[in-house]
Amino acid sequence: MTNVFRAVADVLRQIAGAIATVVTLPFRAVARLFGGASSTAHGRRA
Length: 46
Known about the structure:
mainly alpha, 1 helix
């Protein structure tokens, strides 16, 4: 019976990880976009 709960917990953990990845992807892309823009702007000033 414990193995069943462990299997269910593993599946839920994988689903949660996939959801977290999908949710954070746009924010990472925006952060990379602004991070690259600020670093190039900083490079131009110097």
